[in-house]
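Researcher: Structure for this, please.
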Amino acid sequence: MGTATRRMAQACRVEVTVDARLESVWQVIADVTRTSEWSHECHHVVLLGGATAVAPGVRFRGRSRSGWLRWGRTCEILAVDAPRQIAWRTIPTARSPKTCVGSG
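Model: Predicted structure, token format:
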């Protein structure tokens, strides 16, 4: 009897066009704790180390779920180019040794 294996995507890209002012969109994107409002997998994000806003070096922890699978990852902000982009990476662990890089 075989065991089913489920693989997690290591990279992705999503683009959305909205009819809104750049500053309004930035307020939503810059608050990573709001990710669960639009993500189908991520259901909770918290800034770590007493941080109150994104900045290079700030870490945050996300908790996700898809069906019966549950996982969490710690990420680090790499760059902030307000009001246009935030770049981050996942922090490698023994269970998830690959680093994923993303931006929004």
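Researcher: Any notable elements?
Model: The longest helix spans residues 22-29. The mean pLDDT is 85.
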